[in-house]
Amino acid sequence: MAPGQCRQCGYCCSCMGEVVGIVKQLDQARFRIQFLITGVEQIVTIDPDKLDLFLNQTIPGKKSLSCPFLRKKEDGFVICTVYATRPELCRMYLCPKCRPVS
Question: What is the pLDDT of residues 59-82, one digit of tens each?
Answer without folding.
Answer: 655 556 788 899 988 898 889 999
